[in-house]
Amino acid sequence: MMGWFVGLVLATFASTVLAHAQDQVAEPDGYRTDNYRAPVPATLAGARVLTTAEAEVIWRAKTAVFIDVLPRPPKPQNLPPGTIWRDQTRLNIPGSIWLPDTGYGKLAGATEDYLRRGLKRASGSNNAALLVIYCQENCWMSWNAAKRVLSYGYPNVAWYPEGTEGWDRADLPVSESQPEPRTDEERLSPR
């Protein structure tokens, strides 16, 4: 019983520290283009910012499409012949659409097309569908992607800044995921 209480106190303290750190980060005018794993703002103009509890309610009600934008680690170039390469497993919120590499500050045209096509498929061509954008905690990739999705004319965007780390802390289910397929041209130039 005592362990549960200590866990609750630590989680509350961590949330308070995170909220305080986020209050000190201002929203930039444009996209973040470097140092992506850093404290993020508490807001995103035009988007709803979700806590883990709010994201869970939406997820359980199945009233939104969850979109994971965490980058996919590339296969190392110049591996010795015969080396076996296995992609790292990505565990994300069950039912999510994984559109990797779409949260960078600058995107190659092919990656931007990939994002637009992925959003269209995920939303069923319904621009009013609620889209919940996330990746990991303190990661600008999800902030950039959510801002970009808003710029495409999707008015119902929610940003979940705690991402899979916040989801995992709440002991919510995760599932193994594979990225949405890309064309051959897009695979050559992810950014």
Could you explain how this protein is built, in words?
This protein is an alpha/beta fold and 191 residues long. The protein has a single domain (37-73, 88-188), classed as Rhodanese-like domain (Oxidized Rhodanese, domain 1). The protein has 6 helices and 7 strands. The strands form 2 sheets. A 5-stranded parallel sheet has the order 1-6-5-2-4, with helices on one face. A two-stranded antiparallel ribbon has the order 3-7.
Core attributes:
globular, disordered C terminus, 7 strands, 191 residues, alpha/beta
Number of helices: 6
First and last CA, distance = 49 Å
The portion of residues assigned to helices is 25-40%
Task: Give, in spatial order, the strands making up the sheet with the most strands.
Answer: 1-6-5-2-4
Give the helices and strands as they follow along the chain: HEHEEEHEHEHEH
* Total number of domains: 1
The CATH homologous superfamily name equals Rhodanese-like domain
Oligomer: single chain
User: How much of the polypeptide forms β-strand, as a percent range?
Assistant: 5-15%
Tell me briefly what this model is.
With 191 residues, this protein is an alpha/beta fold. It has six helices and seven strands, in the order αβαβββαβαβαβα. It has a five-stranded parallel β-sheet with strand order 1-6-5-2-4, with helices on one face. Strands 3-7 form a two-stranded antiparallel sheet.
